[in-house]
Amino acid sequence: MLRRLSTGWLLIALAVFSIGSTHAGEWNAWPFTVRMQADDAGRPKQTDFLGPIGSLREFDSHEVFSLRPAYTRFEGEKRSTQWHLLYPFFNFYEHERGYHWHSLNLISGGSSQDGEVRDFDVFPFVFYRNAPRAEDSYVAVWPLGGTLKNRLFRDRIDFTAWPLFVRSQRGEEVRHHTPYPFIQRLSGPESRGFAIWPIYGQFERDNHYRRTWLLWPFLYHYEDRLDQEVPYVRSGFWPIYTQETAEGLESATFGWPFFGYTREYDPRPVYSEARLLWPFWIQGRGEERYVNRVLPFFAHETAPGFQKNWYIWPLLRVESEEFANMTTRTDSFFFFLYRGKTHEMEDRTARSNSLWPLYGYWYDGEANRQFQLIDPFTVFFSSNEVVRENWSPLFAVYRFDRRGESRRHSLLWNLLVYQSEEGETERFQLGPLFDYRSEDEESRWQILGGLFGIRKTDEGRRLRLFWKDL
Hints:
Blueprint: H1 2-19, E1 27-29, E2 33-36, E3 45-49, E4 54-58, E5 63-67, E6 71-75, E7 81-85, E8 90-95, E9 98-103, E10 107-112, E11 118-122, E12 126-130, E13 138-141, E14 145-151, E15 154-160, E16 165-170, E17 173-177, E18 183-187, E19 191-196, E20 200-205, E21 209-214, E22 219-224, E23 232-237, E24 241-246, E25 249-254, E26 259-264, E27 271-276, E28 281-286, E29 290-294, E30 298-303, E31 306-311, E32 316-322, E33 326-333, E34 338-345, E35 349-355, E36 359-363, E37 368-373, H2 385-390, E38 398-403, E39 406-411, E40 416-421, E41 424-430, E42 434-439, E43 442-447, E44 452-457, E45 460-465, E46 468-469
Antiparallel strand pairs: 1-2, 2-3, 3-4, 4-5, 5-6, 6-7, 7-8, 8-9, 9-10, 10-11, 11-12, 12-13, 13-14, 14-15, 15-16, 16-17, 17-18, 18-19, 19-20, 20-21, 21-22, 22-23, 23-24, 24-25, 25-26, 26-27, 27-28, 28-29, 29-30, 30-31, 31-32, 32-33, 33-34, 34-35, 35-36, 36-37, 37-38, 38-39, 39-40, 40-41, ...
């Protein structure tokens, strides 16, 4: 029975697809192919196939092709191309300057457009760069040996039979480890130091810093900004007691990180804070900051351009931020179960909200709205275009798209499509079975792409039979 039903549906779809539609090359042979032209509301030309699996959207400046969830490609102007294979596992980017690729940011490579600079990494085992200048080239195979340049927060790193010998350089400071990290020696024009980790270490640089520790990380005394009148000092017997002092700052913690206090004064804005069983009980008062936290019952915190409230943590959170031309408010229930955002701008107010994983909603504050039923990804990856293109459509059981006065409803990946303009029905499609359109002074309906239908114009009605107008 299932085989007969599938065969019959396939024959119907192939018939519609082969004959085509009388409306500007559009057709609906769901689930095999659905094609829709660009419209005046700004929707792009789009071709979908196999339900949510495949799609091609053609914009004015670029196009997006997806074979979900395996492959997605964005192609634009000036050789700007990117494609993703089983995102985020493999990603390729090409632009005017060259190309680069990576797999989970662990294996990566790339080349400049002229091919003079090439990179290849297998983190943390292989690091390779070939550049025209010898000082920019390097190769390293961990743990055997090699050189890295401008990597891992250092200007240069040399190592042989890691951890037996490691040399790192940042600016004029050179640090030797023999072996890493146990025996350390610091040298430079203004720098010196020595350490046997974790027993004892002392490092200093004239007019910059002086740092000493014993039985790291339990006993330490760090002095930074020695060129200033009041240096920045951190010291402690961790975790029993730690302190921090600087110009206009005094802070101490007892039984880290649970109990402590902070005092800030001129030249800083005045602020005083007491911490009892951090992070649950905190009281802070100041000229610009205010903290009143008694978790899990209540928390209220303010700072310049920022305000946050918790009610019965972690159930309800209300947070607002002020930017140069916009104020953003975020309401969350149980972290991400419900999340709503409001963006207040000078001329409009935009909103978005989601109830995970049931739906996602977006409104730009003017006349554009979108709604998706079953949306498990937007709340986590709201700014990730690849996730929105590659993963979200797989779950879009129902979508509503409003652009100005144009509204489009899509159910079961375009099995049912309903589009209206200013309240007047413009299109209704039920797969390849039924198609109704109304445009200008003309309307028509047809079955199976024109097997039978009627077309109505100012001149009267015309019968459509066996895919021909009579």
